[in-house]
Inverse folding.
């Protein structure tokens, strides 16, 4: 089974699913108090998610929600770098940096991050070269269009083939640039340039991507594919997100990106007990 190795000697054994806990460090995420206060809250939130069963903390300073504005480089660096350093000072957990900017990747890895999570799949200027140079695991996500406009009118002639083709082509570009195939994680990008129906087709057929030989990451947590199906606000999408996480795991995803770590961890434990039986009874 697949193992992701990190330069500090640590590794993630992907023979079982892992939880990536979401840590957004946009101004609206930890809005109480001054800068130190915000840093404190971010570290606390990360430690809490680790205690709840996350093995990766995904730190993002650019909102990629549909319609969100672009964030300038200096602003993104100011948001994420202090948080990575502060987490690194108290934990040796796996940290991923959610960014598309080459310079943020460089500084984040220098500050102690271990994985690059790029919703633009290393297609921004310099990103491919920097990722190759840094020699760290990268998550390549599929997106049709750009965050600001991607939900206007998503269209595919054959979505599954087009996404698979995108992955094949990105894997080729990455390996040509010097990125090791063992360092590539793939993500079909739920909600990124997909209609409601596209998202459910994608969930149903996610297992089609496993044949590409890379670990699969799925991000479904609280997304509008649940809100729009069920007419629920973001804080009312837990049950739906857990259903989505379970289906994704059943279809071969080994990293699940979520807000609700405790609950997702329970789901994974039930799935594992079912798959492997109860050890040490
Ligand atoms: C995803 C993601 C977001 C995802 C990966 C949200 C940063 C939107 N979604 N990264 N990022 N996969 N790899 O609702 O699905 O969390 S932001």
């Amino acid at each position: 089974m697949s193992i992701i190795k990190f330069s500090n000697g640590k590794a993630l054994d992907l023979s079982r699913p892992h939880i990536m806990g979401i840590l957004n460090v946009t101004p609206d995420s930890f809005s109480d108090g001054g800068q130190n206060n915000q840093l404190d809250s971010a570290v606390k939130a990360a430690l809490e998610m680790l205690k709840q069963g996350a093995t990766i903390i995904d730190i993002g300073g650019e909102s990629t929600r549909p319609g969100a504005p672009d964030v300038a480089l200096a602003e993104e660096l100011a948001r994420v770098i202090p948080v990575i350093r502060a987490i690194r000072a108290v934990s040796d957990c796996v940290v991923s940096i959610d960014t598309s900017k080459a310079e943020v990747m460089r500084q984040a890895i220098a500050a102690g991050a271990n994985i690059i999570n790029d919703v633009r799949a290393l297609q921004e200027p310099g990103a491919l070269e920097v990722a190759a140079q840094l020699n760290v695991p990268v998550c390549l996500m599929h997106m049709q269009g750009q965050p600001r406009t991607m939900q206007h009118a998503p269209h595919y002639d054959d979505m599954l083939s087009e996404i698979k083709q995108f992955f094949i082509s990105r894997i080729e570009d990455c390996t040509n640039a010097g990125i090791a195939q063992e360092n590539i994680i793939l993500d079909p990008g739920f909600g990124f340039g997909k209609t409601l129906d596209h998202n459910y087709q994608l969930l149903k057929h996610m297992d089609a991507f496993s044949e590409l030989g890379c670990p699969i990451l799925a991000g479904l947590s609280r997304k509008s594919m649940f809100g729009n199906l069920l007419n629920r606000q973001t804080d009312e999408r837990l049950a739906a997100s857990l259903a989505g996480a379970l289906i994704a795991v059943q279809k071969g995803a080994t990293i699940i990106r979520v807000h609700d770590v405790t609950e997702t961890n329970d789901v994974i434990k039930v799935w594992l007990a079912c798959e492997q039986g109860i050890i040490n009874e």
